[in-house]
Amino acid sequence: MKKQMTCIICPRGCSLTIETDGMTVTGNACPKGKQYAIDECTNPVRTVTSTVRLANRNGMVSVKTEAPVAKSAIFAVMKRIRTAKAQAPIKIGDVLISNVEGTNIIATKNVD
Ligand code: SF4
Predict the structure, then answer these.
(1) What's the DSSP call for residue 20?
(2) Which of 8, 46, 82, 112 has the lowest CB atom count within 10 Å?
(3) pTM
């Protein structure tokens, strides 16, 4: 069976064709595209980005998962993020929520 997808690893956006029976990938201009296609067919992962409410200020701080998580875990990650509150001051890279589906939620913005 053939599957079509666009590689999202870099802005070039190669059109990939995957023979899912043998995992043969064509259309990739570099090896990263082949690995991306195989991962998408076997264990798709995503970096989750969102915001966490501040406990001691008005507003939110932007966050992301420190490492990509399985697509099937995205709702669990978002549930933890929605219920969390962060204490300012915060620096980019601070761990705001630890141990969420095998990774941490880190700040992507400084808050004084
Ligand atoms: S296959 Fe390589 S060159 Fe093409 S979009 Fe993916 S990362 Fe970029």
Answers:
(1) T
(2) 112
(3) 0.79
Query: Nearest C-alpha to atom 4 of ligand 1 is from which residue?
Result: 14
pLDDT tens-digit series, residues 50-108 = 999 999 999 999 999 999 999 999 999 999 999 999 999 999 999 999 999 999 999 99
Q: What is the pLDDT of residues 35-66, one digit of tens each?
A: 999 999 988 999 999 999 999 999 999 999 99
By DSSP bridging, strand 85-86 and strand 49-54 are parallel
Give the C-alpha distances (Å, rounded to integers) separating 96 from 47, 60, 79: 16, 12, 14
Return d(Cα 105, Cα 92) in angstroms, integer. Answer: 11
Distance (angstroms) between ligand 1 centre and the Cα of 18 equals 14
What's the CA-to-centroid distance between 36 and ligand 1, angstroms? 9
